[in-house]
């Protein structure tokens, strides 16, 4: 199990990815994103997850430069948006993201949503970027098992990561089992179900028992399940709190209780129905 913010999981191509990072979904471009990313890096985070559609890549890049950390110490993820899917358009979108971030390379580049029928062409573009050394690892986001099977059937390089909505109300057991079998690292977005889980009585009880917050219990559950996680916050005290999950361990019984909260319910869209922007 990871013991601090610098601890990593090794992706199937040998690249090391931090277990815990900062997500910046819905964090406003400008001062808000700059300050939240700088606060995270100042407090030991090395992984930052953004996306073209978040509209805040420039602020993330500014924060990275102002943080004073060496580029190679950090792990930066971005994603290609739906309307840019396709081979040439993805290559262009990647350049745009890289320019906005002000970086020479990305650590991880993902297809944001599977969409309808272009993800295989998009994946070929990611394979090219990977072979050209522009990105250290490539993966997907919001892919169900059937999307992954279809992609892998014609891919030259298997995705290294699948970033999906994952939390105690959406445990995605079958998807996780498939990813483990294929050597694809599962990563959680919206690990706290956009705050909707913070009042869940079972979690409140468990949090009291360990003298931790509900958020910390959920993030610890992610880690003990072998899932990389990227909680989002713009408040420095919350960014620090979210990372304070390495000094306790949930019992097997409490892990089961938390997993037992599954309702297959989403805060975001179902990937089979999410086809906007295509």
From TrEMBL:
Q: Does NADP count among this protein's keywords? A: yes
The question of whether NADP is a record keyword is answered with: yes
In which residues is substrate bound? 112
InterPro entries of this UniProt entry?
AKR, AKR5G, Aldo/ket_reductase_CS, NAD(P)_OxRdtase_dom_sf, NADP_OxRdtase_dom
For this UniProt record, give its keywords in alphabetical order, as a comma-separated list: NADP, Oxidoreductase
Region span, Disordered? 259-278
Q: For the NADP-dependent oxidoreductase domain, which residue ranges apply?
A: 22-262
Question: Which residues are listed under the site Lowers pKa of active site Tyr?
Answer: 79
Read off the Pfam families from this record. Answer: Aldo_ket_red
GO molecular function of the protein, one example?
oxidoreductase activity, acting on the CH-OH group of donors, NAD or NADP as acceptor
- Active site at 54 (proton donor)
Q: Which family does it belong to?
A: Belongs to the aldo/keto reductase family.
Protein name in UniProt = Oxidoreductase, aldo/keto reductase family protein
Please spell out the taxonomic lineage of the organism that makes this protein: Bacteria, Bacillati, Bacillota, Bacilli, Bacillales
């Amino acid at each position: 199990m990871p013991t601090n913010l610098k601890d990593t999981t090794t992706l199937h191509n040998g690249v090391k990815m931090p277990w815990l990072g900062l997500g910046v979904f819905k964090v406003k471009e400008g001062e808000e994103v700059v300050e939240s990313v700088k606060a995270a890096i100042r407090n030991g985070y090395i992984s930052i997850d953004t996306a073209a559609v978040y509209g805040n890549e420039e602020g993330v890049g500014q924060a990275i430069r102002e943080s004073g950390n060496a580029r190679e110490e950090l792990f930066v993820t971005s994603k290609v948006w739906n309307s840019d899917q396709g081979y040439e358009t993805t290559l262009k979108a990647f350049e745009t993201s890289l320019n906005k971030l002000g970086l020479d390379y990305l650590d991880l580049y993902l297809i944001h949503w599977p969409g309808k029928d272009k993800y295989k062409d998009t994946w070929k573009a990611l394979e090219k970027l990977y072979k050209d050394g522009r990105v250290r690892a490539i993966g997907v986001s919001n892919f169900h098992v059937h999307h992954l099977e279809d992609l892998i059937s014609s891919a030259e390089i298997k995705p290294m990561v699948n970033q999906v909505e994952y939390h105690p109300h959406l445990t995605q057991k079958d998807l996780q089992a498939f990813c483990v079998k294929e050597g694809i690292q599962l990563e959680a977005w919206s690990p706290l179900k956009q705050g909707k889980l913070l009042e869940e009585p079972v979690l409140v009880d468990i949090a009291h028992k360990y003298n931790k917050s509900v958020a910390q219990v959920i993030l610890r559950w992610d880690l003990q399940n072998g899932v990389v996680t990227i909680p989002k916050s713009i408040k420095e005290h919350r960014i620090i709190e979210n990372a304070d999950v390495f000094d306790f361990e949930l019992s097997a019984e409490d892990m089961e209780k938390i997993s037992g909260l599954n309702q297959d319910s989403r805060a975001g869209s179902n990937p089979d129905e999410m086809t906007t922007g295509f």
